[in-house]
Amino acid sequence: MISLSSFMIIGAGLFCTGIFIVLSKRNAIQILIGIELMLNAAILNMVAFGKYDRFNNGGQMFALFAIVLAAATTAVALAIILNVYRRYKTIDPGKVDKLRD
Amino acid sequence: MSLIQILFYLLGFITLASAIFVAVTKNLVRSIFMFFITLFALAGLYVLALADFVAITQIVIYVGGILVLILFAFMLSGKETLTALQEQRKQFVSANKMVSFILAVLFFAVLVIMITRIGADNLAWVKNAVSNKNDITPNVNMTDNIGINLMTRYLLPFEVVSILLMIALIGAAHLSRKERVQ
């Protein structure tokens, strides 16, 4: 069977790609994609370890919860991005620097 | 090398390659569709980790829901995004990108060193699970077990997550509605 370490290394690669996207991109949608990649790396680790929990299903269950929470996060984040675009006419996080109107 | 290992390395390669393509490409729509491929390959990896229900959920929710949402947001904020990308194209390697690349590579090195040193396959509880027959084998059906656990052991997190999902969707609908002219 496949070892846990190879799953973890693929997860680490995904996580670091996500970090690179979050740090380097100047577009809120791409940053959101980076965050999704990092979440998916975490879910991959949970699923890989969840293989050794057959009766309680801890890993797979919390992977499901994490997927649902990622969906909720994305919906709210995209609504915020659309609002920011409507107000500032840009979605570059570096240019959105005012809290007030 | 068995077939399952070949499949694993193939899917892992597709996952990482498409994720890196998402990171380096200049074309936003192309990067979104490559993200789609990353998610599909990840679902394949979940199947290889014997979590078929999670894999199906991944395809249904991520590919069916989140990706369509991201595409919608891109379409609704399209023109400004494209001009921002063209500005980015002028400077090929900026200092910001270099710093984040170095940070990501260093973090990857730290993670790989940690993974090789921890030896996840020889952990005590993993060995314990294998000897107690608590590990998932390819011939058992896990979906009904997941359903039973969801309604008994994990009932409280399930209800909490459902309420949170409802709050988030109402909030998103409220945020994205048009402001009324006073």
Helices, strands, pairings?
The complex is a heterodimer of chains A (101) and B (182).
Chain A: H1 4-24, H2 28-50, H3 58-88
Helix pairs in contact in A: 1-2, 2-3
Chain B: H1 3-24, H2 28-48, H3 52-76, H4 78-90, H5 95-118, H6 124-131, H7 143-151, H8 155-175
Helix pairs in contact in B: 1-2, 2-3
Q: Could you characterize the architecture of this molecule?
A:
The complex is a heterodimer of chains A (101) and B (182). Chain A is an all-alpha fold and 101 residues long. Helices cover 74% and strands 0% of the residues of chain A. In chain A, helix 1 (4-24) packs antiparallel against helix 2 (28-50) and helix 2 (28-50) packs antiparallel against helix 3 (58-88). The longest helix of chain A has 31 residues, at 58-88. Chain A is elongated and about 55 Å long. Chain B is mainly alpha-helical and 182 residues long. In chain B, helix 1 (3-24) runs antiparallel to helix 2 and helix 2 runs antiparallel to helix 3 (52-76). The longest helix of chain B has 25 residues, at 52-76. The radius of gyration of chain B is 22 Å and the shape is globular. At the A-B interface, helix 1, helix 2 and helix 3 of A face helix 1, helix 2, helix 3, helix 4 and helix 5 of B.
